[in-house]
Amino acid sequence: MDLMFANKKLSRAHQRIADYISKNVDDIPYMVEEDLAKACQVSISTVSRFWAEIGSQSLKDFRQRVKDEVMISPARKLQSAFDKWSPSSGATASLLAGADYLQQSAARLVQAEFDRGVNMLASGRTVYLYGPGSAESLSALMDFRLTRFGVQVRRLDRGGHELFDSLVHIADQDVIVIFGFVSESPEMKVLFDFATARGCKTLLITDLVVSDMIDKADMSIYTARGQLWEFHSMVAPIAMVEALVVAVGKLREQEALANGEELHQLRRRYEKWLPKRV
Question: Which residues form a coiled coil (predicted)?
Answer without folding.
Answer: none
